[in-house]
Design brief:
The complex is a heterodimer of chains A (466) and B (434).
Chain A: H1 5-24, E1 50-58, E2 64-73, E3 76-81, E4 91-94, E5 99-102, E6 104-109, H2 148-154, E7 157-162, E8 170-178, E9 195-200, H3 203-209, H4 218-243, H5 254-263, E10 267-272, H6 276-289, E11 293-297, H7 306-312, E12 315-318, H8 336-342, E13 347-349, H9 360-373, H10 380-383, H11 389-395, E14 412-415, E15 426-431, E16 434-438
Parallel strand pairs in A: 1-4, 1-5, 6-7, 9-10, 10-11, 11-12, 12-13
Antiparallel strand pairs in A: 1-2, 2-3, 5-14, 7-8, 8-9, 14-15, 15-16
Helix pairs in contact in A: 4-5, 4-6, 8-9
Chain B: H1 2-14, E1 29-37, E2 43-52, E3 55-61, E4 70-73, E5 78-81, E6 83-88, H2 126-132, E7 136-141, E8 155-163, E9 171-181, H3 183-190, H4 194-213, H5 215-219, H6 230-235, H7 237-240, E10 246-250, H8 253-266, E11 270-274, H9 282-288, E12 292-294, H10 313-319, E13 324-326, H11 337-346, H12 351-357, H13 360-365, E14 382-385, E15 396-401, E16 404-405, H14 411-418
Parallel strand pairs in B: 1-4, 1-5, 6-7, 9-10, 10-11, 11-12, 12-13
Antiparallel strand pairs in B: 1-2, 2-3, 5-14, 7-8, 8-9, 14-15, 15-16
Classes of the chains: A alpha/beta (466), B alpha/beta (434).
């Protein structure tokens, strides 16, 4: 790993230790993303000690701080409160009337794997050749020059999970990145973040493989999951035994390595699953083979089993109002997120969209409003968790980001006004304390290589993206 | 948004006050203490709006409500005309991915301009209630080009306008516009070049013109062969007369210019749909008087024909004097056009123009009389909002469509109510809230 420990401080050391444990412990093949091949080379961009003062701070832990100040120092949140000491070298931003929140985290993104422009050559999100492609890694499809990353940055997105598509029962590994411009995918990888495994329920695998090799039905889907887990269990047993000097290690198998990573707790399951009854089936599949489901994605019907999801401690990643485009989305309701939250389950607003990811704050606002209208009282300081703290929990990065607590990564958004307004803009976006986007400063707005020199003429000096 | 205030102030001078609304009995309604966004005459503070027999019969500051009217106290909140989705598929798309429920496209290549989507519209679709309780009261239902193989018509057919109230007949105008695919979408239909798409359209128009002048000879089989059949040639006549608007799906600046050129040649009443790079040719659009239907959030350089996409498209067009209206083209969520308008304002569009873009502008484009402003004599499509209608934290509180108060209930509210008290009731949800 290229980044120095001094730069990262204590939290990073802990993470390093954790990844070494999972990487060098009982199971070498299911190494955490950070320690295995294609390791993160991410290093924070140069940042200045910064104090944002006089702001309304939605901390992300459910609390709100009026007249609050946040000190960003050495890439971390160094202090937060109404009285914060201002270091002599600090850049001081007066945020009177403006809001500060943790950086927005999108748990369901395909940026880089379905890049813009959306031509055949950039369609790299679905390895739809077999119902089980647990062996593929989304990060190997990511095009870091995708101009959509910069647009997401302007919307306050500081981290995201980039997932393979949902054609397959097992779509492959997802990866969590920091949203910073980089020449390489490795330069974006979130240090210490676990891989995700994309699984898909319901209509999509059926539709893609129904007239090929199958599965053709939902029962075929479930048989497919179980058959794969049986093989993974056997593979893991061999690995465990060989680790104890009993027998030879099995030949490496990329597909089974991913599944073993789940069984060992090193990879988090992100399960595309719309219907409530199918979620219950997937929970039982997980219990049968001894793994945990981290998050149900596109969980349009979570409101029907919110109690079950609370009991099992499974997050739901949901849209504010997408519904009805297919049968398994036909029962969508605007109160889904609020109802899941009210039941004590982990609620997340996700995008699955390169336009939606630019305004997750607005999507959360709509969900909050629908909940309030239905009599579920939700304050903005609570709703902000749907796109920050709860999203961080889903990705297993909640120890280091997702709230503005001292010691955490300085992933911060300064909003022009209440972010739960259609008129709000992200004025400034910080990732690890570095100002990666500034609405008022063109030199702090990243432009991908792709966008350079695209037009033979200029438009009277007008910029395309002013 | 100081423009709003100044217009409100101006309105106070301009509006001729009727001191007492005409007395009327029966099923009349009066919305009192409204901040009325009339669209036509600015904002009236403390307005009373009287609704009777399906129409607005009075509107003015501090009017007394007629005796016997149902009173709705807006408590100072905004009241606007109903919203108008300028390009969608309500009533012809139920579940997008289930072909059996989708009637927007016509796979019979013998017909193009003659194909009228109005005949497929289902007035009982649950989507209508889901949308109207959000303040959407009118919509354009557009045909889609055939998604099949081979060379297909670039003319998708005729779009219809509908109202979202009750009744078996929700179609207002079965032929409100013709929809044509140009640019990348047209090229896919026409055999691989955007020039071929234009050529196909030009040929159809020329044939239709020739046909109109030689109907007798055509019917006797004495005229040259036309590329399109009789039904299409007839359907194109109102287009050639400049009566029927032609919505061109087009994004690249050069494609828009090409469409404008063809429009001048045949005297077409053009409307641009999409128009990702419309801001680059705003002056041309203004000169030609061509409005643009914008999907505001499409700021991705998502195709080579939309590399110039930007969130400021609507604002730049409006500032250049081009009429702008909104559509998501998403079968599920035309209710989100209010958010689109809000995002347009957040990125520089004038507030009042955005509000007009949701109401009066599409009514004008499609020639819909009696809709789009709060004026005496207009259809009573009226919405009381919980706050600024363009905000993401507001909702429609009371909705009237053609004078009838909408029951604020839909399939979605029923599902919500059924699952509010999970686990607290001994019987399964199937037994409640039907």
């Amino acid at each position: 790993m290229r980044h120095s420990t001094t730069r990262f401080g204590a939290v990073s050391l802990l993470l390093l230790a954790a990844s070494m444990l999972s990487g060098c412990g009982k199971d070498k093949t299911a190494a955490a993303a950070n320690a295995g091949p294609f390791a993160s080379t991410y290093a924070p961009l140069p940042g200045k000690t910064t104090v944002i003062r006089n702001a309304i701070v939605l901390i992300g832990d459910g609390a709100r701080l009026d007249g609050g100040s946040v000190l960003l120092k050495d890439g971390k949140v160094a202090a937060i409160g109404t009285e914060v000491e201002v270091p002599a070298d600090a850049v001081v931003i007066d945020a009177k009337g403006r809001f500060v929140t943790p950086g927005i985290i999108d748990v369901h993104s395909h940026l880089g794997v379905y890049a813009s422009p959306g031509v055949n050559a950039t369609s790299d999100g679905n390895e739809a050749v077999s119902p089980n492609t647990a062996e593929v890694w989304a990060e190997h499809s990511i095009w870091p020059q995708d101009p959509q990353f910069a647009l997401a940055s302007a919307g306050g997105v500081t981290s995201m999970q980039i997932l393979p598509g949902s054609a397959n029962l097992f779509g492959g590994r997802g990866v969590t990145v920091k949203n910073v411009p980089s020449r390489t995918m490795q330069g974006m990888k979130f240090p210490g973040a676990k891989h995700g495994l994309k699984m898909a329920c319901g209509e999509n695998p059926k539709r893609v493989y129904g007239d090929k090799s199958g599965p053709q039905t939902r029962m075929g889907n479930v048989a497919g999951y179980r058959a794969a887990w049986i093989k993974a269990k056997a593979y893991k047993d061999k690995l465990d035994k060989s680790g104890k000097g009993k027998g030879d290690a099995p030949d490496r198998d990329l597909q089974l390595e991913t599944l073993v990573g789940v069984l060992s707790g090193d990879i988090i399951v992100h399960n595309h699953c719309y219907r409530a009854d199918e979620m219950a089936v997937m929970i039982d599949v997980a219990k049968e083979f001894g793994y945990r489901i981290g998050t149900f994605h596109h969980a349009v019907e979570s409101y029907k089993v919110a109690d079950l999801l609370a009991k099992e401690d499974i997050c739901s990643a949901m849209w504010a109002d997408w519904w009805g485009f297919k049968m398994e989305a036909f029962d969508g309701v605007r109160e889904n997120i609020a109802l899941v939250d009210a039941a004590g389950a982990c609620a997340i607003v996700h995008s699955d969209s390169a336009t939606g990811t630019q305004r997750l704050n607005q999507e959360a606002a709509k969900a909050m409003t629908s909940g309030n209208r239905a009599g579920i009282k939700i304050a903005p300081e609570h709703a902000i968790r749907w796109v920050t703290a709860n999203a961080a929990k889903s990705l297993g990065i909640d120890k280091v980001t997702g709230t503005l607590e001292v010691g955490k990564d300085a992933d911060v958004v300064l909003w022009s006004r209440d972010p739960f307004s259609v008129y709000a803009h992200a004025d400034q976006v910080f990732v690890d304390g570095a100002l990666v986007y500034d609405r008022a400063d063109r030199t702090r707005q990243p432009v991908s290589d792709f966008m350079l020199g695209l037009f033979a003429k200029d438009f009277g000096g007008q910029e395309v993206q002013p | 948004m100081s423009a709003r205030n100044s217009i409100a102030a101006l309105a106070a001078f301009v509006i001729t006050l009727v001191l007492v609304a005409p007395a009327s009995a029966g099923s009349s309604h009066a919305i009192v203490h409204a901040t009325a966004h009339t669209i036509s005459k600015g904002v009236i503070q403390d307005a009373t709006i009287v609704i009777k027999d399906g129409r607005i019969v009075a509107i003015g500051k501090g009017l007394k409500a007629p005796v016997g009217a149902e009173i709705i106290d807006a408590k100072g909140r905004p009241v606007t005309p109903g919203l108008f989705d300028a390009f969608g598929s309500l009533g012809v798309v139920e579940v997008e991915l289930e072909d059996a429920t989708v009637d927007s496209g016509n796979g019979d290549t013998r017909f193009s301009a003659a194909y009228a989507v109005a005949d497929a519209i289902n007035p009982a679709t649950p989507r209508i209630a889901i949308m109207r309780i959000e303040g959407l009261t009118r919509a354009l239902v557009a045909p889609a080009a055939d998604g099949g193989e081979g060379i297909r018509p670039v003319i998708a057919g005729q779009a219809a306008t509908i109202q979202l109230g009750d009744g078996d007949d929700i179609v207002l105008d079965p032929s409100a516009a013709l929809v044509v695919y140009l640019g990348e979408s047209g090229k896919a239909l026409a055999g691989g070049s955007r020039a071929a798409a234009l050529l196909q359209l030009r040929e159809a128009l020329e044939d239709a013109r020739d046909y109109a002048a030689n109907r007798g000879a055509y019917n006797e089989g004495r005229r040259r062969e036309y590329a399109r059949g009789r039904a299409d040639l007839e359907a194109l006549q109102p287009v050639l007369r400049g009566e029927l608007p032609v919505i061109v799906r087009v994004n690249r600046a050069s494609d828009i210019r090409a469409a404008l050129k063809l429009g001048r040649e045949f005297n077409l009443k053009l409307v641009v749909f999409g128009g990702a790079e419309a801001w680059m040719v705003a002056a041309d659009l203004k000169r030609a008087g061509v409005p643009v239907i914008v999907d505001v959030i499409q700021n991705l350089p998502g195709a080579f024909e939309s590399l110039g996409s930007t969130l400021t498209n609507a604002a730049r067009l409006q500032q250049a004097g081009v009429a702008v209206t909104f559509a998501t083209e998403d079968a599920g969520n035309p209710r989100n056009i209010k958010q689109l308008a809000g995002i347009a304002v957040a990125n520089g569009m004038d507030y009042d123009s955005a509000l007009a873009g949701l109401t009066a502008v599409p009514a004008r484009i499609y020639g819909m009389k009696g809709f789009g402003t709060l004026d005496v004599g207009m259809d009573a499509d009226v919405v009381v909002w919980s706050g600024d209608p363009l905000e993401v934290t507001t909702y429609a509180d009371v909705v009237f469509i053609r004078g009838a108060r909408v029951k604020m209930e839909s399939r979605q509210t029923k599902l919500r109510d059924r699952y509010q008290d999970l686990g607290k009731q001994p019987w399964p949800p199937a037994y409640r809230n039907r």
